[in-house]
Amino acid sequence: PNNYQLYLYGNIESGIRYVRSLRRKINKFKLANVKINDYLQNNALLKAYENSHYLISSSTKEVQSLVIPEALASGKPIISLRNETTDDVIKDNVCLILPQSTPAKIFAQKLKNYVTKTNKKYLKLATKCRNSVNKFDIRNVTPHIVELYSEAIKNNDLTMDQNTFILKVFLIFSMILGSLETILANFIDIEDKTLNKIGLSPKNVLSRK
Prior knowledge:
Elements: E1 6-9, H1 16-28, E2 34-37, H2 42-50, E3 55-57, H3 67-73, E4 78-81, H4 84-89, E5 96-98, H5 104-115, H6 119-131, H7 138-154, H8 160-198, H9 202-205
Parallel strand pairs: 1-2, 3-4, 4-5
Helix pairs in contact: 2-8, 3-8, 7-8
C-alpha cells in the first residue's frame, strides 16, 4: 500500500547486481515508498530500528544472524521466511514465520494482514518480542556455563590443559555475550523512547504516512 514505507538495508557494493535488479523493479512499478539503503552500523543502525515498526525478511539462509535478536530486543515484530536463525531464536509463535516455499504474492498478503493491528495488539506483540530474547542476557547464560564447567571439573572429566582451554572459551564467550547484552540494551532503550514518542497512534504504529 502507498501509505506504508519499505526500507531495504544491506551492503550495496557486494550486492550490486541484486540492487540494480531491485532498482529496475522500483522504477518500473514507480514505487516511491520503497527505499534502498547501504549497510548500517552503530548509531545509524539504532536509529533505523527506532524509526521502524516491523522487520521483514525473505532470507531462506540465515545462520546465527544478529538482525533477528536485534529486532526482537527493540520490540519489532518479524515477518520472515523460515530459516536457521528463526528456528533457533523465535519460539511460541511470537512472530509471523512462513514456509520457505511461500509464493511472493502470498507472502505479501500475509504481511499486509499481519501488520493491520490495533494499537493495543501491537503493543502486546512488541512487548512479547522483547521478552522473548531475555534468554540471551549474559546474566541468564553465564550461570549455566559456570555450572557445566564446575560439574566437569568435579567429575574429573577434564585434564588441566582442557580446563585452561575451556576457561578461555568461557571468558571469550562471556565477552561476546556482554557485547550482545549491550547491543540488546540499546535496542530496548530506543524502543522505550519510540513507544513514548509515537503515543501508539495507528498512523505511526503501522509505519504509515
